[in-house]
Amino acid sequence: MEEDKRLINNLKSDRTVLQNKIQNNLEKIQRLKMAKTRITHDQEDFWSKKTLISEPDLSSEWVGKHANELMDFRADMEQSYRSINTEQVEEIITDIENKIDELASMNEGYSNSISSINYRLSLF
Questions:
Q1: Most buried one in 16, 33, 75, 114, CB count within 10 A?
Q2: What is the rounded distance in angstroms from the CA atom of residue 121 to the CA atom of residue 124?
Q3: What is the mean pLDDT of the chain?
Q4: Could you tell me the residue ranges of all domains in the chain?
């Protein structure tokens, strides 16, 4: 009888720990989703400013060595802009999505464990 009480208390304690882990993960998932939304919005804003690289348009008024250097510089900037927007930001978004999936999977495992604990408790 005393052993049963101890086992029941241990199972209830384990269930509480798992429920807290689920809650913590849900909060993390929510924060990650908000971060992803902000990053996506900022990415769109960042991309909309790409045209500023080529302003002002000096192609018909400015010629020579400095004009060529400026055009090369602008081309390099545009390449960097593309790299930041398409590669680096997309990698961050993918990492966030993977972490969300990982936390959701962990919660599924915790939920399964809670179901198992509840079943065991129902046997008493």
A1: 114
A2: 6
A3: 91
A4: 2-122
